[in-house]
What we know:
The complex is a heterodimer.
Chain A: H1 2-12, H2 15-42, H3 44-47, E1 53-58, E2 66-67, H4 70-75, E3 80-88, E4 102-105, H5 107-113, E5 117-118, H6 121-129, E6 133-137, H7 138-144, E7 151-156, E8 161-173, E9 183-186, H8 187-197, E10 204-205, E11 207-212, H9 218-228, E12 236-240, H10 241-251, H11 253-284, H12 286-295, H13 299-340, H14 351-368, H15 370-378, H16 381-386
Parallel strand pairs in A: 4-9, 6-8
Antiparallel strand pairs in A: 1-11, 1-12, 2-10, 3-4, 3-11, 5-8, 6-9, 7-8
Helix pairs in contact in A: 1-13, 2-11, 2-13, 2-14, 11-14, 11-15, 13-14, 13-15
Chain B: H1 5-14, H2 16-48, E1 55-60, H3 73-79, E2 95-106, E3 113-121, H4 123-128, E4 133-137, E5 146-150, H5 151-156, E6 165-168, E7 171-180, E8 189-193, H6 194-200, E9 208-212, H7 219-228, E10 234-238, H8 239-245, H9 248-283, H10 285-294, H11 298-325, E11 331-336, E12 341-346, H12 351-378, H13 381-386
Parallel strand pairs in B: 3-8, 5-7
Antiparallel strand pairs in B: 1-9, 1-10, 2-3, 2-9, 4-7, 5-8, 6-7, 11-12
Helix pairs in contact in B: 1-11, 2-9, 2-11, 2-12, 9-12, 11-12
Amino acid sequence: MKVLKLIIKNAMRHKLRSGLTAVGIAIAITAFGLLRTIIDAYFIGVEASSDTRLVTRNAVSLTFSLPLAYRDKIAKIPGVEEVSYGNWFGATYIDQKNFFPQFAVEPETFLQLYPEFILSQEEQENFIKERNACIVGRKLADKYGWQVGDTFRLTGTIYPGDWDYVIRGIYDGRDPATDESTMYFHWQYLDESLNQTAPGRTGQVGVFYVGVNNESDVVPVSDAIDNEFNNSLAETKTETEKNFQLSFVSMVGTIITAVRIISIVVIAIILLILANTMTMTARERISEYAVMKTLGFRPRHLVGLILGESTAIAVAGGLFGLLWTFLLVWQFGLFLTANVGSFFPVFELSNTTMVIGFCTSLLVGSLASVFPALQAVRLRIVDGLRRID
Amino acid sequence: MKIPIVYNLRNLISRKLTTGLTVLGIGLVVFVFTAVLMLAEGFRKTLVSTGDESNAIIVRKGSNAELTSGIPRSQTNIIKTQPEAALSEDGRPLIAGELVVVNNLPRRSDGQPSNVVVRGVSKESLLLRTRMKLTKGRMWRPGTSEIIAGRSVAEKFEGCGLGESVAMGMRKWTVVGIFDAGGSSFDSEIWGDVEQFMDAFRRPVFSSMTVRMKDASQFDAMKTRLESDPRLTVDTFREVKFYENQSQNLGAFIKILGLTVTFIFSFGAMIGAIITMYSAVANRSNEIGTLRALGFRRRNILFSFLLECLLISLAGGIIGIFLAFFLQFIDVSTTNWATFSEVIFGFKLTPPITIASFVFAIVMGFAGGLPPAFRAARMQVVNALRGA
């Protein structure tokens, strides 16, 4: 315990310097936490994926549709438990800034395939009953202050025109990774309207959602579906929901790599700051180390002192940093939502990030003391006592 | 009388490691700052240069991207009669109908599929896009499954190089030419005959019509006429503005993320500078006392230490910008959600960005150097000489 006291007293000898160093480390840990949270947010769709759900889309690209008639053929394939379908609607709510995802889905089968969207029995029934009903996620409803029974209008882009909806349910996500910022409405509503305005576009589905009985069916069913429609006018590509989500992530692969690189740069900056401090500190105390060696302290004692001081400062900085990360992640999330809409449906600091942040500060604390510690160990007593500065 | 700068320089050099670490820290921060601004600028420039000042683009009402737009032939025939259109050498109005679809093709780098814009163009399209040049090979022959690929697509996607072929829409298309579109987003596209594509992808409508106007000032008149015509449901934009809009979201995200990170880093770098300078002041208290005793005023001391810090930050700034300069040789490709397709762009260093980065470095130096400089200036001569 005496050693600990000595370490802390040493650190407090230059309160300002130690304090500033800790703050510098805290800032860097905060940045690191934010960047990791951003990467986590990109992968959230992947996390929320189910192992027994597949997504079937047009092989050319997601922007081409599939005929509704495929539904029955898919349902007949052995291993398939449930088939639903949906179209990305992509309309604007008042202003482009208010972006949130909207899908036109087959309501009954969709809710069965996605049990993680929790609605009351009454909300479910009302949603299924009314043609222009919709359900919205809790986060989305909170953002616009929507209640069940409210109406709103969307201006279509892919499907032009004005579309009116009434909210019949607000769903909560079962898991923390479940998305709560999407709106779902009836595919029939879309199709019937197209029948009036653009008859050539009816009967077209964006994706099919396919639920299989168990995981072992995934590969055979995927192959069976794609084989079924091979050489047809609309060839399909079926993949697990996880891979489907991953394909979106890989589209922005460059950004994620850049963020990862910056995270490493952040660690480098922390190291530089702390190493700088420890170097200065060690240089000032050379004569002290020489005296201690004369008194009989072994090199390992000196190393322990230096290491201890470095780590103490790093840990103090790390703890501060974690606190600030909380605040920053919260504020950054709000700022993004205000300016760029529902970019990340879930933007939260994970426990893993906090643990990694803290461990990083410990690691940095140790690394930064290496060079000064080596210097102290290699010091010849006579050189140390000779130094005046 | 001012304290000679040599004094500061020599002090910096004598404590090489500490100075080096601080300079490196500031350099890193300036590098990230500059890189972010360069990236956002590169992205914006790619999209903006896609548009031509004298061109206007017409899409379906409510669409903000060609992908979600569709104009039936009944309407395109009416649009083709606009008088503002310039005429080609053989007297044809320069109005081109184009079809834009997106195909999922594998990247060369990791084999992962990504969305590539495939544009079906009319004969007039090439005349409208003055920055487009065919650099290798030749144009496609009419009625065949031949296509040309943009410079970046040929480099980055499998099967899109000269002589290679790619399967799209149940047909095999051979790349017979490579074009350079002057760094605009067209470099990330595949071009082919619009009639062939309409057939292959079974999309019998045009996505957009592009018009070259005789005079750019005629835009408003044409816009009013087209949008008030009851037979048409279209929106008209200046081509430059249209493509610039597509860069808003992603550009804003890059800037927000980048500048937030840089802002945080800058505090880190400033703290690094402050720590260095405080300890410098503490260690040199004898010198400071001596200088005061010799007759230098407090403000001379203040400026001297401030200058020392500025030298560090300037050095860091130069290093940071120098390193950032080399980023311009790197291509970045990512998906622009506005068009749901991959766009390949780069880092662009402009004079305003260089100036901004220098200012940033200087501000960091100033903020970091001021408190320690004050402390140095305020020291009592007698205490300083005593070696506090």
